[in-house]
Structures are given as C-alpha cells and as structure tokens.
Design brief:
The chain is an alpha/beta fold. It has 2 domains: 10-154, Rossmann fold, CATH 3.40.50; 248-360, Up-down Bundle (Dehydroquinate synthase-like, alpha domain), CATH 1.20.1090. The protein is 52% helix and 12% strand. A 6-stranded parallel sheet has the order 1-8-5-4-2-3, with helices on both faces. A two-stranded antiparallel sheet has the order 6-7. The N and C termini lie far apart (45 Å). The structure holds zinc ion.
C-alpha cells in the first residue's frame, strides 16, 4: 500500500537557456563551482564566465574515486555552496556525488542527452579504466536541471541516439520491476506511484512516435517540436521513470558488457539498447515486441547484434563472463522476473544476437 516518488526540484528545458544560468543559480547561494566536460569547456566559459562567484574546472573524464576526491577538494577550497555538473553523465554524476559529500546544492546542466543521469539521485562510479564499480543512491536529487536544447543539438547526434537507447530501457525495466515487485530507488526503496509508472510508459510511447523524426532533424542541427519531445523523453521521462520504477537486466547486461575491453568505445546508451533487447529475450516477451524493438534500434543505428558491439569474435566464455558480471551481488539484473542464472542470461544474450541477425 505504500509508495514513493522522487525527482529533481525543477526541470527547465529551452533553446538558449544557458543565457539564464545566473538567475537559476543566485537563489541557491553566492559561491559556485562548475565541473565541465572538456568538450564544452570553452563554450560554457564563454556563456557563464561573467557570473560573479563562479569558478569553472575541467572534468577529468571518469567518474572515479580519485576524480570525486579532486572535486570535493575544489569545493572546499573555493567555498562553493552550489556545484554545477555540466556535460555528459559522468561529469554530472561526479558533481552530484561531490556535492552530497560536501553539503552543496546541485545544479545539473546536461550538454548532451545521452543518458538519464541528470534528474536522478543515482550515480554510477567506475574504475579509472572505465570498468563499472558501484551504483550509489544519493540522499538528494539535483535542485535544478537546466537543459539548453541548442547545446544538445550542437553535440554529435550519436549522443542523442544513445540517449534514446538508454530511454528505451525505461519502460521495459519498469515492467520487470512491477512484475517482480522490486522496490524502487526512492528513499531506500518503495513500490512505485501511479505517476512514476505512467511516466515510464509514456516515455516509451514518445520514443516510438518521435525518435526517427527527431534524429533526422537533430542530424541537420534543427530544433523541432519532435526534438524537444525526445530531449524530454531522454532526460526527464527516462530519469524519473528509472528512478521511480527501477532498472533490471538491460542495465545489468550493460554493466556485464563493460568487463569486455572491446565494448569500451561504446556509449552507455548504446550498450543499454542492446541490453534492452536481451532483456526482452530473457523475459521471453511477445515476438512482435522484440521484433519492433530490434527494428527501432537498427533504424537509429543502435547496436542489435554482438558484431555491432565489436564482439563479433567473442567466444561463449566471453559472454559467460558478461553474464557472471551481470549477476554480481547487488546488480539490478535481479529485478528481472525470471529464473536468473549464468546459463539463462548468457543464452538470452546469444539467442538475441542470433534472432536479430535473422530478423534483419
Ligand atoms: Zn542508463
């Protein structure tokens, strides 16, 4: 009978919103530290450099224990009351963790829409080498999430497509959690609210209706109503959906794939897209649904086979290692409502690969 819902304090999405950054910051404090991805450092320095009390530091590239410690030290040194995580998911997660450790407020400024990290109180830590280490549940969501659609569309379209791959997992994984009655990620774990479930479901509908149109427009640097809806689906709906309903084997298999060096060139959402297809096979969903998801991913250029992941030469033992890692203690794979063993997970991955090649 209990239920809980969590999300960011405010979400603002608008073309050119970066110009309004100062007015979003000043209610939160007067000393600010921005952790910015190198790819957008110049652009953000130009846009925000004049804000009084703002220091900007470049992100080192990995959300690792060492990088978190470096940012914590910088917050203490500058006396920042507000930390701004600007860039991709890893810079944002690093800023979120460092802010919580120092008691600072959190503003998130995603410059790509490649993951659903910005809105949530969940952060993922990796080793220096990029191997998944731990998923942290922070006690606070970001205070403000600011999305400038111009920045999102200025980035390579591959990021937007990866975000669609990450968002594709939202409803499928929410459904796993509903069927397995697994607690969500809010306040230590509760059943989801109707609102949370509706958002996850709606996320899927928006992706199916808008993704091909939005990608075509974004590829040309155009911002259309469709692009804005996909940005909202990738960042807000997917973020609220996964936090309020939970992840399952799509993300578990993503985590497993990171043990294979050959996948390190791929973006999070690209691996999660493949993991979503594997999840559908693992759960033995309807033929029509699996086929639709494979075609949807293939049309967008998201990976649907092991070869697409750079694992065309992977052995059965390699995929066994992926399955073992996907079933490590604490993995979200365990929210999937089926028999979960190394054999069932490995065979679902190999079977999905074979089926996708036949469908195509
Ligand atoms: Zn994700």
């Amino acid at each position: 009978m209990s239920r809980a819902f969590g999300g960011p304090g405010k979400y603002i999405q608008r073309r050119g919103e970066i110009a309004c950054l100062e007015q979003h910051l000043t209610p939160l404090g007067d000393r600010f530290l921005m952790l910015a991805d190198r790819a957008v450092l110049d652009r953000l320095t130009k846009a925000a450099g004049g804000i009084a009390g703002l220091d900007i530091m470049a992100f080192n590239g990995e959300c690792s224990a060492a990088e978190i410690a470096r940012v914590v030290a910088a917050i203490r040194e500058t006396g920042a009351q507000v930390v701004i995580g600007a860039g991709g998911g890893k810079a944002i997660d690093t800023a979120k963790i460092a802010a919580v450790q120092t008691g600072a407020r959190i503003v998130v400024l995603p410059t790509i829409a490649s993951t659903d990290a910005p809105c949530s109180a969940v952060a993922v830590r990796y080793t220096e080498e990029g191997v998944y280490e731990e998923s942290l549940r922070l006690p606070r969501n970001p205070d403000v999430v600011l999305v400038d659609s111009e920045l999102i569309v200025a980035a390579p379209v591959r990021f937007l497509i990866a975000g669609i791959g990450d968002a594709l997992s939202t409803w499928f994984e929410a459904r796993s959690n509903l069927e397995s009655r697994t607690p969500n990620y809010v306040a230590g774990g509760f059943p989801p609210t109707e609102v949370g479930i509706a958002i996850a479901r709606r996320c899927h509908d928006v992706l199916m209706a808008e993704a091909p149109k939005a990608v075509a427009a974004a590829r040309q640097g155009r911002i259309t109503a469709s692009v804005e809806r996909i940005i909202e689906a990738n960042i807000l709906m997917s973020g609220l959906g996964f936090e309020n309903c939970g992840c399952s084997a799509a993300h578990g298999i993503h985590d497993g794939l990171t043990v294979l060096e050959a996948t390190h060139h791929l973006l999070h959402g690209e691996k999660v897209a493949f993991g979503s297809l594997c999840l559908l096979m693992l759960e033995n969903r309807d033929l029509a649904e699996i086929t639709e998801a494979i075609r949807f991913c293939r049309n967008l250029g998201l990976p649907v086979t092991l070869a697409d992941l750079g694992l065309g030469q992977a052995s059965r033992d390699d995929i066994t290692r992926v399955a073992e890692a996907a079933l490590a203690p604490g993995e979200c794979t365990f929210a999937t409502p089926v028999e979960l063993t190394v054999d069932t997970v490995r065979d679902a991955i190999l079977a999905l690969d074979a089926f996708a090649r036949e469908v195509l």
